[in-house]
Amino acid sequence: MTISLNINGKTREFSGDPDTPLLWVIRDDLGLTGTKYGCGIAQCGACTVHVDGVPLRSCSSPVATMPGRAITTIEGLSSRVAKAVQKAWIELDVAQCGYCQSGQIMSAVALLEKKAKLSDRDIDLGMAGNICRCATYQRIRAAIHLASKRLASGDPP
Hints:
- The structure is a single chain.
- With 157 residues, the chain is an alpha+beta fold.
- The protein folds into two domains: 2-76, Ubiquitin-like (UB roll), CATH 3.10.20.30; 80-153, Orthogonal Bundle (DNA polymerase, domain 1), CATH 1.10.150.120.
- It contains five helices and five strands, in the order ββαβββαααα.
- It has helices spanning 22-29, 80-91, 101-114, 120-127, 137-153; strands at residues 2-7, 10-15, 48-51, 54-57, 70-72.
- Strands 2-1-5-3-4 form a five-stranded mixed sheet, with helices on both faces.
- A hairpin with a 2-residue loop joins strand 1 (2-7) and strand 2 (10-15).
- The chain is globular and about 50 Å long.
- The relative contact order is 0.16.
């Protein structure tokens, strides 16, 4: 069975088992390795991608459910919000080991796309389910606040 996918604005074809998790199609078939495998049961957030603008755990999402939907991986982020988040992440040296960071960034971008001014509670709720083994949660929160502040002030990312 061939499945047509819209990934990062490009049409890609997948020929294989329709129950294959989207994560493995992205990584193994398309070579987009920024999306990581963490737990395989949608609990850690390392595999987060956007599907129609909403964060989704790709490790537990069958590729058969994806035709006609817009899938964005970390490699495809390009919005003003995404650039602000990525810049804040670098400036505040958020990543330690870096393994979870693509999923963290994907969730942070979706959160800021939905709501520009965030409280600590908003961030904690919006980022729930994204686990960082290195416990950089304070830096993650600070980077989201910094990106939010810059976006609100109109500063270029």
